[in-house]
Amino acid sequence: MRPGVNPTFIMEIIDGNQIAAAIAAELKAEVAALAGRKPCIALVRVGDDPASVSYVKKKEKTAEEIGVTSRIILPPVSITQDALFKLLDELNADSAVDGILVQSPLPKHIDEVAVFRRVAPEKDVDGFNTLNLGKVAQEDETGFVACTPAGIMELLIRSGVDLKGKHVVVLGRSLIVGKPVALLALQKKAGANATVTVCHSATANLPAITRQADVLIAAIGRPEFVTAEMVKPGAIVIDVGINRVPDASKKSGYRLTGDVNFAAVSPLCAKITPVPGGVGPMTVAMLMKNTVKAFRLAHAR
Ligand code: NDP
Fold it and tell me: Under DSSP, is residue 226 helix (H, G, I), strand (E, B) or coil?
């Protein structure tokens, strides 16, 4: 803890596993009540990147638990962009597929944003298509919100955090996390209505800005970057980072850590998410929620 700090609050660790499990249970009941064929998600994993292998496995397992059908497609790492586009065009046209997820990162020879754009907007359960990102800006609820940002908002709401009037500082401006979560926190709707500051690698005097945050969302991909000196006592800290750092004591040879130095920062916080077990499980839960939504929208057309 920082010297001189004497917090009067009780720190709470937000349990992402528990909240994600509650969402999964709700979805399972919703899917069980659907007549006819069940929602179907196509999970496309290019190559064998170890992190991607484990993410897709987790998505497949969660889909199965909920009753969502998953179709796993594993193109080789050498697939050309054109061949990947052709595959996506086929999935876009397949009426038995409601949602499509292309696991990132993609190999360097493939333009990731072009791939996101190729997924039909109505099947874009990852929420990275231009149209769906635009709908977030326009606060159009018919779109799909990217899963990690949507999961962060859901995590906050279900933990009793109302962002109205709060200063949210987002560390990171990626298309996948930073920008969409900033837009969501800014929305003029219940649970949002925050005042938002977005920081990035060119931000000057970063700690002075992060120290102003009532809610600090760290998504920069730098292990334990956020230190106690960067956090206001009583703040709520959402750690999005998933970093693998070498650890000889582990069988895998690495351990997972977030973008926040949990040991140093957590005693200062009102609430904080751990890594693992914070935002990560929410991302998968929101993917399933989007898939069920895509199914419902397709059947309403
Ligand atoms: P990106 O690498 O796409 O973006 C990182 C952002 O952080 C950039 O905007 C970059 O700035 C900024 N940044 C990097 N270094 C600094 C620095 N020293 N000071 C200030 N800003 C900095 O990462 P992602 O958004 O894709 O992912 C971020 C983290 O979240 C990663 O650890 C990733 O693994 C994790 N993640 C977790 C998910 C989950 O489900 N929990 C899902 C997705 C990601 P600039 O734009 O200037 O380069």
Answer: strand
Is beta strand 40-44 parallel, antiparallel or unpaired with respect to 69-73? parallel
Strand partners, 244: 256
261 lines ligand 1 (CB under 6 A): no
Mean pLDDT, range 268-292, rounded to an integer: 97
Q: CATH code at 92?
A: 3.40.50.10860
Q: Residue 183: which domain range?
A: 146-280
Kindly report which listed range (29-33, 170-174, 287-291, 297-301) carries the lowest average pLDDT score: 297-301
Does ligand 1 come within 6 angstroms of the Cβ of 174?
Answer: yes
Q: How far is the CA of 202 from the centre of ligand 1 (A)?
A: 13
**Ligand 1, residues 148, 200, 217, 245: which to mutate, most atoms within 8 A of Cβ?**
200
Q: Which helix (H) or strand (E) holds 74?
A: none
Asked if 151 and 60 sit in the same domain, the reply is: no
Q: How many residues does the chain have?
A: 301
Q: Indicate whether 24 belongs to any domain.
A: no
pTM score of the predicted model: 0.95
pLDDT single digits (tens) 200-238: 999 999 999 999 999 999 999 999 999 999 999 999 999
Q: Is the CB of 221 under 6 A from ligand 1?
A: yes
Ligand 1 atom closest to Cα of residue 225: 18
Does some domain include residue 9? Answer: no
